[in-house]
Amino acid sequence: MHTALFIITGAVMRKLLLGMAALIALVRPAVSADMRAPSYKASRPLLAIWGWSGCYLGGHLVFTKGVMVSRVAWAAGPRRWTRALQEADLPDDSPTAVEAEGRQVMLYRHRGSLYAIDNICSHAGGLLSRGIVADLTVTCPLHGSRFALTDGCVSRGPASQPQPVLPTRIRNGWIEVRGSRPAPRRPVNGRTQP
Ligand code: FES
């Protein structure tokens, strides 16, 4: 019940925001045309700032946050094997959120096999650990995208980008994860090897 309400509220909010953005985009040219009148000369710089701030905000959201592109497009760490959770603390068949060097990860164990997938949904940032897992596929609680735990592939949208999966291992009773980008090799003669 709560999950359904959350999904509906999220979808309505998104539509409202998109509607407001479209309305502003429609109104701005009209305001701009009006401002060309000589009596509004002093207001023209303000209009220019308005326009450029919109460009900045859009660029920031897309290129820094990955909004509507992939919220995990730049997720890479941890650079080395990092302890995420004690093995004994992970229940079977229960999505569990952990953090490893600042990266949010969802752990899942099924019949002795361990899976780790980025916990931030690539679509709009929903927490996958709050979703339902069935047949090794997790359903995002926000808009219902489905991702395979084995390789992160999208089996149902609206997400269009796969979800990064992380390698796992167990060492000394700890579940360790590592990002897909390995750490550089140790420096040799003062230089870092790629
Ligand atoms: S946030 Fe939209 S499907 Fe996950």
**What gyration radius follows from the Cα positions, in whole Å?**
22 Å
What's the helix-strand series?
HHEEEEEEEEEEEE
Bound ligand species: FE2/S2 (inorganic) cluster
In total, the number of strands is 12
Beta fraction: 25-35%
- CATH hierarchy: architecture of the largest domain: 3-layer Sandwich
How far the N terminus sits from the C terminus, by CA atoms, comes to 50 Å
Classify the helix fraction into a percent range.
Answer: 25-40%
Unreliable parts: none
CATH fold field value of the largest domain: Rieske Iron-sulfur Protein
Classify the oligomer.
single chain
The coarse silhouette is elongated
> Mind summarizing the main beta sheet?
4 strands, antiparallel
The number of helical elements comes to 2
Major sheet: arrangement of strands: 5-6-7-8
CATH level-four homologous superfamily name of the largest domain: Rieske [2Fe-2S] iron-sulphur domain
Question: How many discrete domains?
Answer: 2
Instruction: State the CATH class of the largest domain.
Output: Mainly Beta
Q: What can you tell me about this protein's structure?
A:
This protein folds into two domains: 2-63; 82-179, Rieske Iron-sulfur Protein. Helix content is 28%, strand content 26%. The protein has two helices and twelve strands; from the N terminus they run H-H-E-E-E-E-E-E-E-E-E-E-E-E. The radius of gyration is 22 Å and the shape is elongated. The protein starts with a helix and ends with a strand. The structure holds FE2/S2 (inorganic) cluster.
